[in-house]
Structure formats: C-alpha cells, structure tokens
C-alpha cells in the first residue's frame, strides 16, 4: 500500500513541513518513503495533504486497572457518600453475605455530606457482612470493610508492611484505611481475576488507546490480577486472537527480593523477551509513597506538615541487593521514587550497578522532587526518567505544601534533566494522569493548567520544547524496549506505527496543542482507529 500526499511531522528529522510524501507500507513495516506524487504502479491511498506523525508509546501506565474501571464499578464521578452508597447498591443487585464488593476511583476528600474520610465503620452502612474494597482515585489509598480486615489480620506477611501505611483509630486499632504498599499488598493477595476477566477488561480499554494514538504501552498490571502468568496469558491470547492493537511491555511489581528470585527461577524470559507484541518489562519497585498523603520520602519536612518527611520502603542495603540481583539476571528495574530522598536512594543503588544501569537502561519513575546534587549524579549515571507532566494540571498550586520554596525550581525539572542529556519519557500513569498524549504534551510545553494558569507557566524555565515532548512519547520509550532501531520513527525498515493528525503541531499556538485530534491510528501496518 502507498499512502500518498501526506506531510510528515517527526522531530529533528529532515522532512520539510511544506512538502508532501508517499509512504510505502509492506506488511508491518514502512518499506520506503518517496516524494509525492507517487508515480509507481502500487495501489495508492490519497492522504489529502494531512499530517502524518509517529504514533505514541506510553511508558508508564496501569492498563488493566483502567480497563477494570470501564468494566467494573467506577466511582470516579461520585461526589458524595450518599451517592457512592447508592451507586454501589445499584451495581451489586444482591449483596450476599461474604461477597467481595469492589469499587475504584472514589475521592472522599471532595465529599460534602460527611466531615471525615471514609473508614471501615462507614462501610457498614452498605453491608455489614461483606468483604469490601474501595480504591482511591490516585491508587495510593484504599478503604476496606471490617470483614475484610479480619482476613488481613491473618496475613503474616502483611505485618512487614510499614505501620505508617496502616491508619489507626483513637484506640490504636486499624480503621480500615490503608496507604501505598499496604494497598498493593491487599490488591495482590486478596483476590485474583482470571485471564478471561482480564481480557474482557482490556477489550474495554483498548479502543480508548487507539482513539488517542497510542500503539505501545509499558504497563504495571500484576496487582489487579494476582499472577504474572495469568497476566501474560491474557495479553498473549488477545494477540493470538488479533484483538491487541498495541505492543505491550508487562512489568512485574515485586515486594522483595524473594519475588524476584521466584520469577527468575520459574521463567526464562527476561526484559525485552516475548512474542512480537507482548514482552517482559521491568521489575517494578516502590521506594516511597505519594506527596498527597505525605508519604513520599523527602529530605526536608513537608512545609504544611512539619512532623512528616515521608517513608522509605526499603533500607539502602535491601534496595542495593534487589537492583544487583535484577541486573545480574538481565532484568531491567523501574523504581517509583517521588520524593528527593527516594530519588537519592535509587541513584545510590544504580551507582553500585553502574554498568548494568547503562546496559539494561534502568528507570526511575516520577522523580518529581530533585536538587542540584541529585541532577549532578544523574548526569553521570543517566538512567531513564519517566515523567507525567499532566500531573501538573492539578498539582502546580499544591507544590508549596509539599516542597520548601528553595527546592520548588527543581520540581518536575524536565528541561534541567534534558540539558544534562538524561533520557526522559513522557507518560500518563493511567488512570491517574491524562490518557490523551496531547494533553500531556500541552502541559510539558506550557506548564499551566488547561485554563492557562498560572500565567506564563509554573517554573517556566523547566518547559520542554514541542520536539523534545514528542521524542519523549516516541523514540525514547522505544529505547526502553531495546527497539530504537525498529520503532518510534517514520523511516524505512521501521514498524508502521503512525498517526494522521488534524493539525500540524508546529503550525499552531502552544496553548492549542491540547486540541489536536487523531484522525487515524495505524499499528503494524493496519488502521486500528479512524475518526
């Protein structure tokens, strides 16, 4: 097939924006690029002068969780406790004793009909004798029922989770509210969905990816199914059924080095190995929590909560051992580190496995709070940093609560990292951040919310260029898959993953980047979405 009469947008390439080209697609690859009009004998599709660009690769998301929101009980829109109870009761026609009741995406901080955050006692208003689990909108907090807490008390390994992540009442007893890795433990150990359940949830999610031009994802899903084997089965069966319009790299979230050793003993596949569309990702390691809950590990106390500076999940020795074990077994690591103390811990561990960090392209996720000394060490080490610019839409006005004024210039320091040639990806953290890559690109370029606040951008010296933002969604994520010679570019020999856009990104005002629409999405030479 020849797609003729298209303009090509690809950052830092020689394609001229005022010229049109013809793209020859053969099977799953781009075979050739010609000047337009095409004069050969192949069948031609007229691109009508529209803009063609590489498709997007989202390097950090939770795709199964997003699909479950679409398939199961979605609480993201409820605005009160009374509404939440009604939605739960309507969703579950018969609340039988000891049934599990799940809900995701609530935000009780915005409820105006109760003067406290939900606890297990409140859930008794729904059903006393039921196992209930409700996840907060940001994924770092949950509330469970008293009946579910009885199960949790029998879990010996749960005692190893930090006490700071287990809320207590005035009598020192659990109140049913849990944070960070305690949340992950509950998700991972209390239930496991089948591969068929996962497939149905993914089918609900995948059209939304195609609509927004995403053809590759790196996703952390294991806690929502309970088994890496079942997770692998779900994705690869969709691939075999030709129902997977993306490439997927599947991370393996681990709690400790034992989890790593178990995986490596039971599986021969390592990072980058797998099928044509489904590959093994990283060992995912959580180093700290989140700033909203004051659990992200900071080197300074929180300005609005001087008694808190967060919590590191592991000692330095434990993390060093985990990173070394992963490196010795050819597994990439991706470390969640939001606070500067957690970033410092990640850097220290990576420095001790410096050659493996370069070879395996280890990652630090978020790195939202930095400082000059940390940037200097990152410059020498050059791990990949996975950023989520769309978080700034809601968080720019909150930064003063979490970070001393002197360090705010080093928050979400995208430009400072790129100046030091530290590789950077852009991502969504779906379903927490914005799914639409153009919303993320808009935020990276402008550093404002969607209404243009604050005027001139928050910490505008850290704005990314449009070109660098696109690279963070195309070529750089391909490097994390070890596929930079195969994906992320409009070039002969590369995978035919591309978009047709309604506007040329360089021909509109920066504040209008969020309005660009995907007209067509092509994955491996097939059109998987057309507006």
What's this, in brief?
With 531 residues, this protein is an alpha/beta fold. The chain has helices at residues 63-71, 81-91, 120-123, 146-153, 180-190, 195-211, 228-240, 257-266, 316-328, 340-352, 354-360, 372-381, 392-395, 399-402, 414-419, 437-446, 466-471, 475-480; strands at 2-8, 21-26, 29-35, 44-46, 51-54, 56-61, 100-106, 131-136, 141-144, 166-168, 174-179, 214-219, 247-253, 278-286, 333-337, 363-366, 384-387, 424-426, 498-501, 518-523, 526-530.
List the helices and strands and how they pair.
Elements: E1 2-8, E2 21-26, E3 29-35, E4 44-46, E5 51-54, E6 56-61, H1 63-71, H2 81-91, E7 100-106, H3 120-123, E8 131-136, E9 141-144, H4 146-153, E10 166-168, E11 174-179, H5 180-190, H6 195-211, E12 214-219, H7 228-240, E13 247-253, H8 257-266, E14 278-286, H9 316-328, E15 333-337, H10 340-352, H11 354-360, E16 363-366, H12 372-381, E17 384-387, H13 392-395, H14 399-402, H15 414-419, E18 424-426, H16 437-446, H17 466-471, H18 475-480, E19 498-501, E20 518-523, E21 526-530
Parallel strand pairs: 1-4, 1-5, 6-12, 7-8, 12-13, 13-14, 14-15, 15-16, 16-17, 17-18
Antiparallel strand pairs: 1-2, 2-3, 5-19, 8-9, 9-11, 10-11, 19-20, 20-21
Helix pairs in contact: 1-6, 6-7, 9-10, 10-12
Structural overview:
This protein has three domains: 2-55 and 490-530, Urease, subunit C, domain 1 (Roll); 72-179, Diaminopimelate Epimerase, Chain A, domain 1 (Roll), CATH 3.10.310.70; 287-464, Alpha-Beta Barrel (TIM Barrel). 31% of the residues lie in helices and 21% in strands. The model has no long low-confidence stretch (mean pLDDT 94). The protein is of the alpha/beta class and 531 residues long. The chain is globular. It has helices at residues 63-71, 81-91, 120-123, 146-153, 180-190, 195-211, 228-240, 257-266, 316-328, 340-352, 354-360, 372-381, 392-395, 399-402, 414-419, 437-446, 466-471, 475-480; strands at 2-8, 21-26, 29-35, 44-46, 51-54, 56-61, 100-106, 131-136, 141-144, 166-168, 174-179, 214-219, 247-253, 278-286, 333-337, 363-366, 384-387, 424-426, 498-501, 518-523, 526-530. Strands 1, 2, 3, 4, 5, 19, 20 and 21 form an eight-stranded mixed β-sheet that branches. Strands 6-12-13-14-15-16-17-18 form an eight-stranded parallel β-sheet. Strand 12 (214-219), helix 7 and strand 13 (247-253) form a beta-alpha-beta unit. The longest helix has 17 residues, at 195-211. The protein is built from 18 helices and 21 strands. 51% of the residues are buried. Helix 9 (316-328) crosses helix 10. Residues 44-529 form the Amidohydrolase domain. Keywords: Hydrolase. It holds the Pfam family Amidohydro_3.
